Amino acid sequence: MKILKPLQAFTKTRARIAVTVTGLIVSALLIVSFGTFYSPDSPPNIIQAGGESPASDETKEGFTTANPKLVSDSSSMIIIGTVLSHETANIYPRRDGIVEDVLVDIGDTVKKNQVVAILLPKGVEGLSSAMIAEKSAVKFQAEADYINSLGVAQESVNKAQQQIEEKKSALAVAQNEQKSLLQKFSQQSADVKQKLEHAFISARRARQLIEQITLGSNTRTGNMIREVDIDKQLGLMNPETRYTVSFAFGEIDQAENTYRNMSIKDQLSYIYQLMNAADDALIKTSDMLTSTPTVHLAQPGLYTYQNITDMNNRIIAAQHDILSSKENFEDSLNTFSTTIASEPALYSAWKSGSNNPNVQSNKVQMLSAQLGTTEQHLTFVESQQQQMTDKSQNMIKIADSMLSAQYAESGHKEIRSPFAGTVSKRFIEVGGMAMPSISAFELVDVQTTLSKKAKKEIKFGLPERMLTSLEIGDEVEFLMPNDDNKTYTAQVSRKSPQVDISTQTITVQAKIPDELSIPHNSSVRVRMSDNKTPVFRIPSFSVKREGDENIIWLLGENDVPEKVIINVKSEDGEFAEVTGDITTESEIILDPPDFIAKSFDESPTPKLQ
C-alpha cells in the first residue's frame, strides 16, 4: 500500500501535465487560425506579370497591383490581300448566239486571232430576224427623236427671246424709278433737317420751362442759374435738390451752346446728348418740386398744392415733347439712312451734284446685267439646240449603221482570240448561249505592258492610320493560303494617293517574285508591323469585359482607379498580350470590380472615373 500511494500521486500529476500541454497547444492553434483569417496585413498570393513578386497592400491603398511586362516595341496585324495577275486576259464573243462547237479547253495554248469556238448562224431560233427588227425599231425611234428635237429647239429659242423682251421692259421701269430716287434723296434730307430742328426746339423749351419754374421768368436766356437765384420755397425740404437743378441747368445750357457751334453732320449725333441733358434737368426739377412745401390756401410767397401740380404737368408735357421729337427725328434719320444704304453710289452722285450717266441705281445695274445674261443665254440656247438636233441626226446615222451591221453579221459565227496565251478557264458549253457581256475564255501567260513590270502583284487595303508606315520600294511579308509557317516578301510597287471613304484604307499593290506560282484572284495574308503600338503581357484575370470592349483598371493619380480600354492580341489562360494606353510603370489593379467599388464606398475618396 505504501508503494501504491506514490505511484497514484505520480499518475495524477502526469495526467494534469498532459491536460495542461494539450490546452496550450489548442490555444496556440486558435491564435494562429484567428491571425490567418482576420489579419488585415495578409495580402493574397497573386503572381505579378513578368514573374515579379506581388505588390503590398500597405503601399497600394489596399489594392493588389501588378506592372505590365513589355513583350515587343511593336505590334503586327494581318491584312487579307488578293493576287492580281497582269498576264491574265478574257475572250468575249462579238455577238450573241448559240455555241455550235468549242475548239480549245483548259491548258491549251492559243495564238493571236486563232478561232477558239464556233457559233450557230444568226438565223437559228429566229435570232436574225429578231435582231434586225430591233435595230429597225431603234432607227425609227432615232428619226422620231430628231423631229421632236427640232420642235423643242424652236420652243427654247422663242422662250429665251421672250425673256429678253421682259428684261428690257423692267429696265425701262427701273430707269424711271432712278429719277424719282434723286427727288426722294432731296425730300428725305430736308425732312431730317426739319426733325432735327424740332428736336432742338424741344430741348430749348425745356430749358426755358426750368427758368420759368425756378426764377419765375424765362427772360434770362443765356445766363446760368445759381442756387441763390432759385425761389427760396422751392426744394426747401431737401436743399440738395436746388443744387442738382442748378447743375443740371448748367449742363443743358452748355450742351445747347455746343450744339449751335457744330456743323449739320455733327449735330445729327450730338442732338441725342442735348435732349438727354434736357430730360435729366426736367427730372431733377420735378424732384425739387416734390421737396417743396405746400399750403392749402394761397398765401404770399408760398406754393399751393395746385401750383406744384400745374408745374409738374408742364414738366411732363415738356418730357413728352422731347420724347416725341426724338422719335420723329430717329424715324426720319433711319428712313434716310435706309434709302442711302440701298443706293450708296446714286446717293454719292446726288450729294456731289454729279450728272454722270454711268452712275446707276442697284436695280438698274441688276437689270442691265440680267439683260446681258439673258442675251448670252439666247446665244447659248441656240447653240445647244443646234447641237441637240445635230446629235439626233447622228443617232439616225448610227442606227442605220447598226442595222446594216446586223445584216452583215448574219454570217459571222467565229469566236477568235485577240491574245496569245494559255487557256485557264472556259465559261461556255456546246449548245449554250454566248453573249458579248459574258467572258467565253480566260487566258494566262498573256504578254501585256503591266506584266513586263510585274507578272503578279498583291493588292490590299492599308489602314489610314498606317499611311506613313509604307512607301513605294518597301517590302512586306505575306503568307501563302496553304502555309502558315513560311513567310514570303513582296515589294511595294504602287500606292494610291487617296483614301477610300467607305473602308478608310489606302490601296497598295506589291510585286510578287516571279518564281512564286500563285493563282490569279487567290487570297493571301499580308503581315503589317505597327512600330507605334507596343505589346504588353498582363495577367488574364485582370482583363474585364464591358459591352463590346476589353478594359483594365489602373491605379492612377492620388491612388484613384481609372478605367482603360485595351485590345487583346492573344491569351494563353494565365497571361494575355494586349495593346493600349499603358506603360511598364502602370499599376494594374488585380482585385475584382466589386472590391474596388466597395473600397470606394468605405472611403472619402472620389468616385470611380
Structure overview:
The protein has helices spanning 4-38, 127-215, 240-260, 264-290, 305-342, 344-352, 362-408, 449-453, 593-601, and strands at residues 65-66, 69-72, 75-85, 89-91, 97-102, 109-110, 115-119, 294-295, 303-304, 414-416, 421-426, 433-434, 441-444, 456-463, 475-479, 487-495, 505-511, 523-530, 535-539, 544-546, 549-555, 561-571, 575-580, 588-589. With 609 residues, the protein is of the alpha+beta class. It folds into four domains: 1-39; 65-73 and 534-601, conserved putative lor/sdh protein from methanococcus maripaludis s2 fold; 75-119 and 413-531, Beta Barrel (OB fold (Dihydrolipoamide Acetyltransferase, E2P)), CATH 2.40.50; 185-352, no CATH class. The strands form six sheets. Strands 2-19-23-22-21-20 form a six-stranded antiparallel beta sheet, with no helix packed on it. Strands 3-14-17-16-15-18 form a six-stranded antiparallel barrel. Strand 22 (561-571) and strand 23 form a beta hairpin. Helix 2 crosses helix 3, helix 2 (127-215) crosses helix 4 and helix 4 (264-290) packs antiparallel against helix 5. Mean pLDDT is 78; it is low at 1-15, 28-59 and 604-609.
Helices and strands in order:
Elements: H1 4-38, E1 65-66, E2 69-72, E3 75-85, E4 89-91, E5 97-102, E6 109-110, E7 115-119, H2 127-215, H3 240-260, H4 264-290, E8 294-295, E9 303-304, H5 305-342, H6 344-352, H7 362-408, E10 414-416, E11 421-426, E12 433-434, E13 441-444, H8 449-453, E14 456-463, E15 475-479, E16 487-495, E17 505-511, E18 523-530, E19 535-539, E20 544-546, E21 549-555, E22 561-571, E23 575-580, E24 588-589, H9 593-601
